[in-house]
Amino acid sequence: MLDAIDRRIITATQDGFPLVAHPYRTVGQMIGVDETEVIARLDRLLADGAIRRIGVIPNHYALGYTANGMSVWDVADEAVAGIGARIGALDFVTHCYERPRHLPIWPYNLFAMVHGRSRDEVRDKVARIADLIGAAARVHDILFSTRILKKTGLRIAA
Amino acid sequence: MGIYDPTERAIINGLQGGFPLTHEPFADAGARIGLSEGEVIDGVQCLVANGSISRFGPLWNAEGLGGEVCLAAIAVPPEHFDQVASQVNAHPEVAHNYERTHALNMWFVISVDRPERIAGVIEAIEAETGLKVYSMPKKREFFVGFRVEV
Fold first, then answer.
1. ipTM of the complex
2. Which of A10, A14, B30, B72 is the most exposed place for a label (fewest CB within 10 A)?
3. B128–chain A Cβ distance below 8 A for any pair
4. pTM for this prediction
C-alpha cells in the first residue's frame, strides 16, 4: 500500500513539517521529488486514512490537560454501535472504541478516553456520558492514569 | 500551563486539523484564522520550542500504514510493579505504558508493523512475567472530534 516515496515522506515529516513558507517544496528537496508530488501524496494518504489530520499536535499536559481518565462501560452488544457514535461526537472524548470483555475481571466493552484539567472535570464529563447512555450501561468505571511508564511516538523505518 | 497570547490561541485552537495542502500553506492557514504567514510560522516555532505542542504536521495512523496496534492490560502485584514495568517496556513494540487505577493496573499499547506479530509479543511478556496479559484489540472505532481549547 505504501511505496518507497510514501515511506520517505513519512520519515521526513514524522517530527513535523519544516516551518518555512513552502514546506512541501522543502520536503520534496529532502527526498528528491517535486512539490506537487509531495502535495498529491499527502492528499492521498489523508484520504486513505493513513494520516488522521494535519496541523497542531497538542501536548495535552503542557496545555493544562493533566487529568486523563479511561471511562469504560458495559453496554449491550447490540446497542454499542449507536451509543459509541453518540459518545464519539462529544467534543471532550479523544478516543472511543468497542473492545472485548474478559469476564469476570473485565466486564466492559466500550471505552471512551476523556481528558480534562483536573480529575473532577473528567468526572463531570464522564457523568455527561452516563446521562447520554442512560440505562443502556449496566456498569461503568473510570481508570485514571497515575504514572506514564513509557511513551514513544510512531517510528516507521524508511 | 502557560498563558497564551491571542496569536498562540488562534494557532492552537484553529489549526488542529485541516492544514492546507497548497503551495503556501502557512499563508493560506493564516488567512483562515486572521494571521499573517510570518505570524503563523513564528508562532508555531515558539509553541514547539516551549513544548506546548509536540509538533506541527501530519498525525499518522499506524493501522492506516499497514501496521497494527493492540491495547493490553495486566493485573500486576504491587510489590512487583516496577520489575514488571521494566520487563514490559523492554519490548520495542510497546509504544505506551500507563499505570492506572484498577486491579488491571498496567495498560500498554503494542504497535507492530505486521499484525501477526502481536501474539508473539503477548506470549513473550507472559513468559517473562508469569502474569496473564489481557488482550483488548479494538473491535470497532467510533469517530471522535476532540479538540483542545486554550
1. 0.80
2. A14
3. no
4. 0.81
